[in-house]
Write a structure and sequence with these properties.
0% of the residues lie in helices and 8% in strands. The protein is mostly loops and 96 residues long. The strands form two sheets. It has a two-stranded antiparallel ribbon with strand order 1-2. It has a two-stranded antiparallel sheet with strand order 3-4. A hairpin with a 5-residue loop joins strand 1 and strand 2. The termini are far apart. This is EGF-like domain-containing protein.
Length: 96
């Protein structure tokens, strides 16, 4: 496959930092997914990353980040409608 693509027919785009993907799409040389991409072979687009969150810590891709919102609420504004199949939000026991 040409640089930046992978798959049996080179049909998938590499979303690893520096376009460093193996033939199966996994990131190589200690790299990770580019900002805004995640999961297996970095093939899932993180809509929250582009949503202008109320605090950048909400989209830092670190499940250990602790964020306590000042008004006990958070927000994200998407610029256009979209269809999604799942949402992932991690809550820890603060105040519970």
């Amino acid at each position: 496959c040409p640089l930046g693509f992978f798959g049996k027919k080179c049909q998938f785009v590499c979303h690893c930092k520096k376009n460093l993907c193996r033939r199966d799409g996994e990131c190589t040389q200690g790299t990770s997914c580019k900002d805004g991409w995640f999961a297996l072979s970095c093939q899932y687009n993180d809509l929250a990353y582009a949503s202008q969150p109320s605090d950048p810590r909400l989209t830092d891709n670190n499940d250990s980040t602790c964020y306590i919102p000042p008004k006990n609420s958070i927000g994200a504004n998407l610029t256009e409608p979209f269809v999604y199949s799942w949402v992932r939000v991690i809550f820890r026991g603060y105040g519970m």
